[in-house]
Amino acid sequence: MEEKTKFIIMGFIGILVVSLFINFQVYSSKQEVVRERDILKNDNMSLAKKAEESLKDNRRLEDRIGSLNDDFEKISKVKDELARKVEFLNKEKEDLVKKIKSQVAPVAAAVSPQGIEEPRVSIALGAEDIYWAGVLKAKKSLEVQMENVNSQLKTMQINSEQMKKDKSVLDLEVKSLIRDKQDLKRQLEYNQKLIDSLAQELVREKNDKFETQTTVASLKDENEVIKRQLKSLNVRKINLESKVTDLQREKFDFENKLTVMDSVLKDNITQMDGLKRQFEAAQKEKLMALVEPQKESVELPPIVVRPQAELPKEAASAFTTGKVLTVNEDSGFVIINIGEDAGLRMGDTFQVYRDNESIATIEIIQLRPNISACDIKKSTGIIRSGDIIR
Q1: Which of 207, 224, 241 is the last residue of a domain?
Q2: Which domain holds residue 367?
């Protein structure tokens, strides 16, 4: 019983250790998953911020490209307008040159060799000079404007080429930003999938933890049941030990009783043998005394000895009535004057009577041919020598 109890306790301790180890593993894995989830959330937030910043930069670059395109279109329109003005001025210049040539030819043909008409020509020539001076001046100013316009056009062309270069660079940057955006989207999708998988793992771990808690609860219930069983077993063990102690004590007392009864029976047997021999000697003397006067004339009938098994039932029942020879109150037993020869067996019970009133119940515990030792089972009075038993 003790080895079984130790085995149960060791098994319960092993189950507790395994459950604690499983709980620790689940808790550590949960903490690791939570840390990884926090790291992924932080990475996701940083990637989202980068994506937003990239989108903002992309929008700014698109706005800048749009403004540059508008400026380029405006400059192109100004250039076209100045080109039209230059063409118009060139046409006017050519027309003026044609007019001057047409006017100079008649004047030269009309000039005479006389000097009277020279002042009129000179006057006409002075007015024309003034006109042509204004024309030349306007031409000069137009040429200066043309040079300015050409310089502006050159600068605008340079700016346009620079803007084209900037636009190509911006296009490359936009393409790289688009690629970065796509990479960020893929990274976000991967992170989302990873978060979903982590969430599923957390759900599975939560279910495993719940199952583990259920198992631990059942183990605790089993532990309580085992504890109660151990307590009941300990109580039963204590009761059995006390019963064993009582039985050993009763055995010791019974052995003492048997020893005392054996000694008493031996003494009584020796006394009975002596009394029997005395009684037989007395009977022989009486028979001899009776037989000797009639010795010559009396014939005795043959003596028939019947076996004990052939005795009639009335005779057998007559032997069940006897008397108490001795009483040992300290050991709780009595000696009666009937035994195996009277048909008694171990375990037979009798009632002890005095004045036709039952005062005790006795049970045979040892048998001899002519006497028996009986244990007092129940007593309502004091048994004495000579009391009748039936």
Answers
A1: 224
A2: 318-390
